[in-house]
Design brief:
With about 290 residues, the protein is of the alpha/beta class. It is built from eleven helices and nine strands. The chain is globular and about 55 Å long.
């Protein structure tokens, strides 16, 4: 659940479809459509998902166009976007948490996504130059104005989660932090979200295992712990990525991973993680990784 909205247990991160190295539009659409066909109903994007030489909102427009071109049902799809970051000409990333910027950015995102309220709007990253409470206050105003239906925050620590809860109340429904088999720094934030009933959206949830699985080599040479994901994958006859997502779903009931994909096959494989049941022994082995 994201607030009062029920979505699939695995979402789709659309960043790989929107930034440098992205596939062409046809394959991008096919990837989104494959995810929808497989039961994924949460699509995650951001106004800053664009190539360095692109225009803000290219990722949002891709999601809107892919949904418009889909031949099936889309009324149960929740589109989540983010505001507060940008791109530089050399490929870098900026952060801008000024309330006036966030208001303009959210209104522009709403227009690109179709003109209605944004399903889930996430403050992309705290701006060290702006008091976090001020940035959160802008999100609260967007909620009050009906520009945004639900609110989330991203790249935050436990103190910032508690502050956001204070400012936004029960309209804060999610936290999106980096978390994966290889990167578990956000364990305290994940546990706090579980205690508060906030959905925890791990970004880059396949970190550390994707390359080794794609090229057929074991991850043990670089990080011995990650070899557990390959061993369990061989036992079940599935990809290490699918095992990683199934493991993430066991971390807490409120975890909802949003793996990226740039191919239809990857989107389908991610969605299938909801059907992979790990034994207690396997989960303990993966926890230890």
């Amino acid at each position: 659940m994201l607030g009062d909205v029920r979505v699939g247990a695995v979402g789709l991160g659309t960043m790989p479809l929107s930034i440098e190295g992205r596939p062409d539009a046809a394959r991008g659409f096919a990837t989104v459509h494959a995810a929808l066909d497989a039961g994924i109903t949460l699509l995650d994007t951001a106004d800053s998902y664009q190539p360095p030489d692109g225009e803000p909102g290219e990722g949002e427009l891709l999601v809107r166009r892919a949904l418009a071109a889909y031949g099936g049902r889309t009324d149960d799809v929740l589109v989540a976007t983010k505001g507060g970051r940008g791109r530089t000409a050399d490929g870098g990333w900026t952060v801008d948490g000024r309330p006036e910027h966030l208001r303009r950015a959210a209104e522009a995102s709403a227009r690109r996504l179709g003109g209605g309220p944004i399903g889930l709007y996430q403050l992309h990253k705290p701006d060290p130059a702006v008091p976090y409470a001020e940035s959160l206050g802008a999100v609260r105003e967007l909620l009050d104005a009906g520009t945004v239906r639900l609110a989330g925050i991203s790249n935050v620590d436990t103190a910032q989660i508690l502050l956001a809860r204070e400012v936004l109340g029960d309209r804060l429904v999610s936290v999106q932090n980096r978390y994966s088999p290889a990167v578990r720094d956000s364990e305290p934030e994940l546990r706090l979200c579980a205690a508060l009933g906030l959905t925890f959206l791990p970004w880059s949830p396949l970190g550390g295992i994707s390359r080794s699985s794609l090229d057929g080599r074991s991850a043990q040479g670089k990080d011995p712990g990650l070899g557990a994901f390959h061993r369990v994958a061989r036992t079940h006859g599935v990809s290490p990525q699918r095992v990683a997502l199934a493991w993430l779903l066991t971390r807490a009931e409120t975890v909802l991973p949003i793996p990226g994909a740039s191919r239809p096959e990857s989107a389908r494989d991610s969605a299938a993680a909801t059907d992979l049941v790990l034994t207690g022994e396997e989960s303990a082995e993966l926890d230890g990784g």
